Amino acid sequence: MSEFTPKEWGKIRETLADDPTKYGLPKREYGSVVLGSFNIRKLGAVTKRSRQTWDFLAHVCKHFDLLALQEIMDDLSGFQELKGRMGSEFGTIVSDRTGVFSNQPGLGERLGFIYNLSMVKRGEVVSDISFDRTKVLETLARNYDQINQAILPYVDYLKELDQWNSNQLGQRPKKPNVKMPVFITFARQPFCVSFRIVGHPGTNPYEFMAVNAHLYFGDYISDRRQEFDALMAWILGRFIQHDRAYYPNFILLGDLNLDFDNPTTDRDRIEKHIKMFNAKVRGEENVNFPFLDPHPKTKQVLRTNARLTETFDQIGLFNWDQRLPTYKENSSMGENPRGPDYGVFNFVELFSDALYNRGVSELSLSEKKAFFRRFEHEVSDHLPLWLRLPLPD
Q1: Phi/psi at 54 (5° precision)
Q2: Among 104, 115, 317, 363, which residue has the fewest nearby CB atoms (within 10 Å)?
Q3: Which residues pair with 344 in a beta bridge?
Q4: What's the whole-model pTM score?
Q5: Distances from the Cα of 378 to the Cαs of 52, 77, 290, in angstroms?
Q6: Alpha-carbon distance 114 to 142, whole Å?
Q7: Are 26 and 35 in contact (CB under 8 A)?
Q8: What digits encode the pLDDT tens for the residues 311-346?
């Protein structure tokens, strides 16, 4: 059994229309703005998805006022199709391809934003995030022995890499890899865009740099943590020097590939790590990752991958603006319909309810395997996550 049939899509639409908020789709609420992040798996050629899938994705994305998208492919026809189905009231901006060297094989990606033109205005600053040559050379020089020791065991690394580049290894899924002892540079450069969220007439807008990131997954958790630390260091470097920054506040939205499968142990480790960053800005409330906390209404940590086992995707706030929520407010999220609040649109439960008349947890292992296979490529293997803020007043 392959992708959903038109009849099944009809059932999915009916089930969602009966109770949209049951699955966490953020509704339109007067006086609020919804920010979000969505890794749409291999968002490339328009022909790779059915008309019904594009309709569904556009319907979902229209619920966001500023949406960061990851895994946009070099072929922009699908991204353009999505925006076209959302309507003329939305604008877009997208990066060039990153994660691959020009004219060499590999799967590069773009990062992009879709935003509601009536509420969100783009600023002047748009940039990739990278480490300059001097910093890379310094890292190599200071860690030469460690790096050399890491590469030495891979005696066939260059040979395998040359074979991979010349396609002699056929359909090898990925390049040979080395476990690096230190961070050198990003596997995919994060994308940074300045935005303003306008409120009621006469009010000061929210002004921030939105950082869209799809961090390294790879074979080694240490590599993933190094990238996260490097991105945090870059943001904090600009954040601390807020008097020089174009906009002093930063909002990080993306697939950070954090190893957060066990909240009991992982949360303490990551929280301790983030508190270390807070100490650097001399204000423990300045850095806030609400998706690390159990949501106050459900007392459960929200999952963001389609198999509901991980919270890879995150939204992080680095704010000097006292109107933006700090971690101290996470325990009261959702008390006001206008926000602040946060959540995930769990389309996996929606699909299961519509097609099986029962939740995912009630499916057998064989049913789950077949079920996931039908939508993880056609729709996505990640869920969209969102943060609602009250409009500036």
Answers
A1: -60, -40
A2: 104
A3: 385
A4: 0.93
A5: 10, 16, 29
A6: 41
A7: no
A8: 999 999 999 898 999 888 999 999 999 999 999 999
